[in-house]
């Protein structure tokens, strides 16, 4: 189990692999201490972590916690020692709306939000159903092998195919995107993240140029042509936006599906309840988002001035992470928060964030997860874990909360 005693010589807790394997024990300790606590990443970067629900929700909507990537770079440089590895991505993928404050954020979000309205997302349902059926039949064909990796066979290919089709990206590059995305979100090797972002940016620049020459009926062409009055996305903004949509568009759903299945397999009475009544699937999705959401710690912010978080004062220019996984298990918000209950009210959970940076792709992630989990349970009602509970490992990432593999027996 994780303990808070994993610290630096300065006494700061470290967001290490033990934390990644079980963040919930340490989160509970941090919540009990204070609403905000300074910690250190494995690369040596000191950051403040916000752990309690009320404070987390407030910080997510507080403009004094800036997301502007230009100021962020300066805050990172100031916070780290001279011998620490420098974090960061290729500049070509930095200029997206998640890395900006208003008015830049407002302008960029207006150009993409129309693609993710409830009506536009619902129109994708038949295609998502079709891909889901195809993947489940392929999985059934392999059932005789005894076990399959649910991530490789189902949870990963479904959302990557959907987002690639939506954007108009050739499916034959999906394995490259998985490799690039894994490196980008890991957070353990800044140089690997930089190389991955450079490779992805180079491909996206080439793809954008191809779409300009050969426009199609897809979101990428729409982003190239989109505008209000004379506004257009600049070249770097366009590449960065597609970078963000690709990573967020599949990482969130891969982990939501995988984490939901694991939670069911670890809670057989809940699995039985959903199996008996498929109308519980939307509740299953929302409880998975609360209980073991696909994002662990939200992306970095920094204080543009000194800010009080509860009784803790965070100075100007400090880096801040909001722990969505901790806030969503705060007993002051949810009774019996450490229990997985598909019938509970999950209203107000922060799995998709809060405020102006609330995840624009949330309706698509919910739709994909609901279809995937319902059809999976219908097709394989006797699904079981093919390894011991202690053999399940989580990918190293303080940003994303997702499994390395999920070996199952389809039954």
Automatic annotation (TrEMBL):
Keywords (A to Z) from UniProt = Heme, Iron, Metal-binding, Monooxygenase, Oxidoreductase
Q: Which InterPro entries match?
A: Cyt_P450, Cyt_P450_B, Cyt_P450_CS, Cyt_P450_sf
A GO molecular function assigned to this protein is: iron ion binding
Q: Does the keyword Disulfide bond apply?
A: no
Instruction: Give yes or no: UniProt keyword Metal-binding.
Output: yes
Family affiliation: Belongs to the cytochrome P450 family.
Q: What is this protein called?
A: Cytochrome P450
Q: What is the lineage of its organism?
A: Bacteria, Bacillati, Actinomycetota, Actinomycetes, Pseudonocardiales
């Amino acid at each position: 189990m994780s303990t808070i005693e994993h610290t630096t010589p300065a006494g700061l807790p470290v967001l290490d692999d033990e934390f990644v394997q079980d963040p919930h024990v340490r989160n509970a300790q941090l919540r009990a201490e204070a609403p905000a606590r300074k910690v250190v990443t494995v690369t040596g970067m000191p950051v403040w972590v916000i752990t309690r629900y009320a404070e987390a929700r407030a910080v997510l909507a507080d403009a004094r916690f800036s997301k502007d990537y230009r100021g962020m770079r300066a805050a990172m440089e100031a916070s780290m020692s001279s011998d620490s590895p420098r974090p960061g991505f290729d500049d070509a993928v930095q200029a997206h709306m998640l890395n900006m404050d208003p008015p830049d954020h407002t302008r960029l979000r207006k150009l993409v939000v129309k693609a993710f309205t409830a009506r536009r997302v619902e129109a994708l349902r038949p295609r998502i159903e079709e891909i889901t059926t195809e993947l489940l039949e392929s999985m059934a064909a392999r059932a005789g092998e005894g076990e399959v990796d649910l991530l490789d066979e189902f949870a990963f290919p479904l959302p990557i195919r959907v987002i690639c089709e939506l954007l108009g990206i050739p499916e034959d590059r999906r394995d490259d995107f998985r490799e690039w995305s894994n490196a980008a979100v890991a957070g353990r090797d800044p140089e690997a993240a930089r190389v991955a972002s450079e490779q992805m940016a180079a491909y996206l620049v080439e793809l954008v140029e191809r779409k300009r020459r050969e426009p199609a009926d897809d979101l990428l062409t729409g982003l190239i042509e989109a505008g209000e009055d004379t506004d257009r996305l600049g070249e770097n903004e366009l590449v960065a936006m597609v970078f963000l949509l690709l990573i967020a568009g599949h990482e969130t759903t891969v982990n939501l599906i995988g984490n939901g299945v694991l939670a069911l397999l670890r809670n057989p009475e809940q699995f039985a309840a959903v199996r008996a009544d498929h109308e519980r699937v939307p509740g299953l999705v929302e409880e998975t988002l609360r209980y073991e959401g696909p994002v662990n710690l939200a992306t970095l912010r920094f204080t543009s001035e000194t800010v009080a978080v509860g009784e803790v004062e965070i100075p100007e220019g400090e880096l801040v992470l909001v722990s969505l996984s901790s806030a969503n298990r705060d007993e002051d918000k949810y009774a019996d928060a450490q229990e997985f209950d598909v019938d509970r009210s999950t209203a107000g959970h922060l799995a998709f964030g809060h405020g102006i940076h609330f995840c624009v792709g949330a309706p698509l992630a919910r739709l994909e997860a609901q279809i995937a989990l319902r059809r999976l349970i219908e097709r394989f009602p006797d699904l079981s874990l093919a390894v011991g509970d202690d053999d399940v490992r989580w990918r190293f990432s303080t940003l994303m909360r997702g499994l390395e593999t999920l070996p199952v027996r389809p039954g």
